[in-house]
C-alpha cells in the first residue's frame, strides 16, 4: 500500500464541546480525502449515526475509492456519533431531546467543524445523510435551518406521522434537494414503536416533498432495512451530490 499523503486514507476523531447538550460534548469522526490541504475547501457530507456510517456503511473506504479510482472531486465526511439509548429521543421530531440535538448540530457542531477543517460553507456544499431515523433528523434539520442545509441523502427514512406533519407545514420547498431510496422488503419492519411499512412511509414522504416543489430523486430496490442494503447504495447516493455528474 502506498503511504504517500496523496493516497493515504485519513480518519480522525474529535470531541465537539457543547453548552447545549447535557453531557457537554459529542464525538465526531472525520474522513479527510487523499492529499487534503488546508488551503483548499471541500464539499462535506454530514452523517447521522456516524459510527455506523463508517463501520457498517464503510463510507470512508467508498469515498477513498471514488476519489482515487473514479476521479471524483475530493470531499470530506463527518460522522456524528449517537448514544443508541438516546437515538429516538434525539432523531425523532417531538421527542424530548430533538430540539436540543438539532440546536447543537446547527449552533455548535457546524461552527466547530468549519473552524477545524477546510469545508465549504454554503448550503449547496453541505449534504445531510442519514438512515432510518437518521434520515428523519436530516429532514428536520433542513426544515429548521434552510439557510444552512438544502440537500438530504435519505436511506429508508423513518418518516412516521410526526415527521410527515412537520414537512406538511412547509409551503415551498423548491430550495430543497432530496435523494431517497427504500428497500422493497421493508414493508413490515419492527421498531421499538411498532411495526411499519417503510415503503408506504417513503412513498408518502416523496409525495409531500414533490407537492411542495422539492427536487426529489426517488427509487425502490430489492433490499431490507439493513446496512448490507444501504452500503451498496452509497456510491449512487453520493454521486447525486458530489460526483462528477452530480445533478443536485
Automatic annotation (TrEMBL):
Gene3D superfamilies: alpha/beta hydrolase
Annotated InterPro entries: AB_hydrolase_fold, Esterase-like, Mycobacterial_A85_antigen
Pfam families: Esterase (PF00756)
Annotated protein name in UniProt: Esterase family protein
Amino acid at each position: 500500500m502506498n503511504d504517500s499523503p496523496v493516497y493515504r486514507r485519513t480518519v480522525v476523531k474529535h470531541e465537539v464541546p457543547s453548552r447545549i447538550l447535557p453531557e457537554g460534548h459529542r464525538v465526531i469522526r472525520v474522513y479527510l480525502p487523499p492529499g487534503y490541504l488546508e488551503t483548499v475547501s471541500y464539499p462535506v457530507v454530514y452523517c447521522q449515526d456516524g459510527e455506523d456510517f463508517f463501520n457498517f456503511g464503510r463510507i470512508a473506504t467508498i469515498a477513498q475509492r471514488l476519489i482515487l479510482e473514479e476521479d471524483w472531486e475530493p470531499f470530506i465526511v463527518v460522522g456524528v456519533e449517537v448514544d443508541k439509548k438516546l437515538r429516538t429521543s434525539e432523531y425523532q421530531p417531538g421527542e424530548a431531546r430533538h430540539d436540543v440535538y438539532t440546536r447543537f448540530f446547527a449552533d455548535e457542531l457546524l461552527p466547530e467543524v468549519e473552524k477545524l477543517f477546510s469545508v465549504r460553507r454554503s448550503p449547496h456544499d453541505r449534504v445531510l445523510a442519514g438512515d432510518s431515523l437518521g434520515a428523519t433528523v436530516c429532514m428536520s434539520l433542513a426544515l429548521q435551518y434552510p439557510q444552512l442545509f438544502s440537500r438530504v441523502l435519505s436511506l429508508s427514512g423513518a418518516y412516521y406521522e410526526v415527521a410527515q406533519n412537520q414537512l406538511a407545514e412547509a409551503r415551498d420547498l423548491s430550495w430543497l434537494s432530496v435523494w431517497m431510496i427504500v428497500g422493497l422488503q421493508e414493508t413490515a419492519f419492527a421498531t421499538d414503536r411498532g411495526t411499519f411499512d417503510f415503503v408506504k412511509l417513503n412513498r408518502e414522504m416523496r409525495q409531500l416533498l414533490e407537492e411542495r416543489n422539492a427536487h426529489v430523486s426517488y427509487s425502490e430496490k430489492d433490499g431490507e432495512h439493513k446496512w448490507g442494503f444501504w452500503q451498496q447504495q452509497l456510491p449512487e447516493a453520493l454521486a447525486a451530490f458530489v460526483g462528477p455528474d452530480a445533478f443536485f
